[in-house]
Write a structure and sequence with these properties.
This protein has two helices and four strands. It is of the alpha+beta class and 115 residues long. The protein has a domain of 77 residues: Ubiquitin-like (UB roll), CATH 3.10.20.740. It binds FE2/S2 (inorganic) cluster.
């Protein structure tokens, strides 16, 4: 599906369909989304913009640029929000001292040949 960039906002990863919903909190904003939705997409739906470069609605996320890092309460590290699906009760932060200090990609998108 080709989107019209003048009318549609890119939410970062393809939409998931299904009746099961997951409730989580992103930067204090509660949101319920379809199971399997990425954190970056859920954030956009909650009105929280996460910087992204390689993620788009038209492709499955492949986590190359590392610009979309987030913190998840109770989990270590700073996972890419485009490749991390939401989970029930998840508490996500998009801004913190840890994220500010986290190495972000070099702004390049590293493509891998398909198998
Ligand atoms: S937008 Fe998530 S790794 Fe590039």
């Amino acid at each position: 599906m080709i989107m019209n960039p003048l009318r549609e906002r890119d939410l970062g990863t393809p939409a998931r369909k299904g009746e099961a919903t997951v409730q989580l909190t992103i930067d204090g904003q509660p949101i319920a989304v379809a199971a399997g939705t990425s954190i970056v997409r859920a954030a956009a739906l909650a009105g929280v913009e996460v910087p992204k470069l390689c993620a788009t609605d038209s492709l499955e996320a492949f986590g190359s640029c590392r610009l979309c890092l987030v913190e998840i309460e109770g989990r270590g590290g700073t996972p890419a929000s485009c490749t991390t699906p939401v989970a029930p009760g998840m508490v996500v932060r998009t801004q913190s001292d840890k994220l500010a200090a986290a190495p972000r990609g070099d702004g390049a998108v590293h493509l891998r040949p398909s198998a």
